[in-house]
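Troubleshooting log. The previous run stalled partway through. Resubmitting the same two chains, unchanged.
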Amino acid sequence: MELFKNADFDFLGRKWWFILPSLALILAGLSSIAARHGLMYGIDFKGGTQTEIRWDGTPPIGSIRTAISSKLQGVMVVAAHGTGGSNEVIVSTALSPQENATGVRQTIENALSSITTRHSILDFQVVGPQVSEDLRHQAVMATAGASGGMLLYLSYRFRLGYAVAAVLAMAHDAVITLGLLSLLHEEISLTVVAALLTLIGYSMNDTIVVFDRVRENRRAQPHAPLTSVMNRSINQTLSRTVLTSGLTLLTALSLLLFGGPVLHGFSLVLVIGIVVGTLSSVYIASPILLAWDGRLGSKTMAGGLQ
Amino acid sequence: MNKTLVRKTLLIVAAALAAALVLLRRPLSLGLDLRGGTSLILRVNVEATSNDRIREVVEQTRQILENRVNAFGLSETSIQLYGSQGNELLVQVPGVSDLSRVKDLIQSRGVLEWYSVEGGPFSSAADAAAELGGVVPHSNKLAATKPSPSEERMWYVLRSQPVIRGTDLRDARTALDSTEQPVTTFNLTTDAAKRFQKYTADNIGKRSAIVLDDEMLSVPVIQDVIRDSGEIRGAKTVQEAEDLAVKLRSGALPASIELMQQHTVEASLGADSVHRGLEAGSAGLVAVVATMLLYYRWAGANATLALALNGLLLLAALSCFGAVLTMPGIAGVVLTIGMAVDSNVLIFERIREELRAGRSVSAALAAGFSKAFATLVDTHVTTVVSCIFLFLFGTPPVKGFATTLVLGLITNMFTSVFVSRLAFDWELAAQGRTKRLTLGLSS
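Second attempt completed without errors. Output:
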């Protein structure tokens, strides 16, 4: 079986068909993020309260959860059985800026007392948000470092224009996905961050495969117009692009449809990422490279030769 | 030709067997986020200005804490450096049982000292000081017992200079004394034993005080000359005596510790969700394999073999590095699988192109692999470069992603290039003069 035997599509001629919707999506996503005053962080990042309760007898986890969930946000009840036969329960809740910790503690105590008085609170504490200044700093350093590293390596292996185009396409994918998450009311949890990292890797991989072919074709025909070289490269790699994206999309869709609610955020980002990441290699990264070369004029026309 | 093929095949079989053996001996365990547990962030209060000194103290603290949790039977607890300041530790305790005991074990410094008692008991510090004429002289100090259930403490006047310190201990164990009460027994180093023998011989009938972390554990009367071993009574349960023994054995912490943050997580993927996720993932993989077999025919089997071997090697490598499987780690595995599928597709499409261009089978194979290899090097190295930065600056979950991905990419280079190529070579070697490749091409 063969998918595209002698494909000859004018991808770059139709670049605006993709760039305009992409820009619209970015705008919609960014305004959604702005309207919500930033991204919606999950409990992993927001912090909250944590209460350790000793129970007299086996704690009725279910009714504790129901009693507290009706009054507070982001409730999580975990049974912690000590080996000494102690019956401890750990209750975690979210803590929004409007609430104060003492109030939350009181609410929890009241809810527990409505079940039974045979319990005592061992410990109550406010867990700081994980997105502290320190973590923010780390995240910025990691992102900047990784992008810088890729820029350097790709400039060394290709040329600066290729590197800039690839990194910009990657940033484009991340921004679109974050915007879509905001539009879809999806919270940013640690799992979603993991999926974002995956999609960035995927997108970069896809772009490099296309660029690799562009470089090869330019070496073979240094004087051919770049647009046609790029179109030819995209067509030559089309089978692999469609096949790889199709296969990975198949797995991601399977996770999204059958993976259950816990994997929903993760697989949603993957599905969006695979589609956007694949399209952006053709319609974002390649036009940027084209524009870069066009702007820098004829002196780099024979580019790609090392 | 065939000899090289056999040798290469043996190498691959050996690698697969070794990986399987590693996984059988040390299966991957699930991380905190997948099975629930508590993470604690501790700050080590180092009063030092030089960074080297801080690092030294924090590392020493980390090792002592590790010894303690290991002695406690929580060998799966991990303690690692955290944050950018260099003085914070992240303790991850899987499961949520016995949290208060773990916290006590981690937070107490474990400074044991043995003093001679010069006066007491008094009901308050002021009374004790009054006995000394209102001012506590330099040679003496006051200490209180642990508060009783009714919140009462007893105060004693001690000599400031302890007879024995924690560093004088050689070992500590638990035992039951003659009345079946749990006690913590200890042994002294040779030097300290000499000192202690002289001290006890000189002070028979007098009281002494055993002080742990500035709280008096007990005030025994010296009955007899003690040489190199002794016991500490007063533990209410065997567990308490054991915990004390653990703290004494592991040595005192070089600095005090402050609990900054405590976070208990429910297994984000409960047993049920793990099951569903695995099912969905396998269904997806089966679909991928089926498509590849359909599209590439025999070569699809090559790709499947390479993919399976890649998974096996990656899991074994993770196990060798002592990694646990977390959600970000799984994300790394997912991306590895994606890039592995892509590697195979890239190589196969390239071979097809070469065949279409009219090359002979073996030339197409060689050219396909070598051209695709150049692309693979670029995609893989770029990803590894970004992973290095994620590992350097990322938080522990991000580090987990980076580690898994880098290992996965290394194993992928091996399986998708070396293993897959070998499978093709075997296919050709098995044929006669007219060679054909089953790549699903319509000829």
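Takeaways: The longest strand of chain B covers residues 112-122. Chain B touches chain A through 82 residues (CB under 8 Å).
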